[in-house]
Specification:
Helices cover about 65% and strands about 5% of the residues. It is mostly helical and about 140 residues long. Strands 1-2 form a two-stranded antiparallel ribbon.
Length: about 140
């Protein structure tokens, strides 16, 4: 394994610092629209779910790295706020799917537009980190 250069550590520190700032900024954006950071992430998990059918609580628990019962509590709070609804699967009535309400759609659209603009500022830092000669041979290179 190649020895890392000081510039590698500096680039990684700059990127990780930017990630922390982004995360703090993201929490503040969620708060500004009346959501917690976790609730924002839940809306994103529902909206961004891949697949032909809406996600289940198990799906969003996986996305958010939560235990099932924790995801249920989060879904309950978001549903109580009018951002989300539960719907029984039409084929298998035992399965409950999660759908955004219009309020949830509007909220995640607004937050995502802000986040994409903010993330574009992080892109050059990420490019610098992954283009570092020493880091190219790491676990991802």
């Amino acid at each position: 394994m190649e020895r890392l250069q000081d510039a590698d550590f500096q680039a990684l520190l700059a990127f990780r610092t930017a990630l922390r700032k982004f995360n703090h900024w993201s929490e503040e954006q969620a708060k500004a629209v009346g959501l917690t950071h976790a609730q924002h992430q839940l809306l994103l998990a529902v909206k961004g779910h891949l697949g032909p059918k809406a996600p289940t609580i198990g799906d969003v628990a996986d996305y958010l790295l939560l235990r099932h019962h924790s995801a249920v509590e989060l879904v309950n709070r978001v549903q109580a706020g009018g951002y989300l609804e539960r719907q029984r699967d039409l084929i298998d009535g035992r399965v409950v799917r999660l759908l955004l309400t219009q309020r949830g759609e509007d909220c995640i659209d607004q937050l995502t537009q802000l986040h994409i603009a903010e993330l574009s500022q992080l892109a050059p830092l990420l490019a610098h980190v992954v283009s570092s000669e020493s880091l190219q041979h790491g676990p991802l290179g």
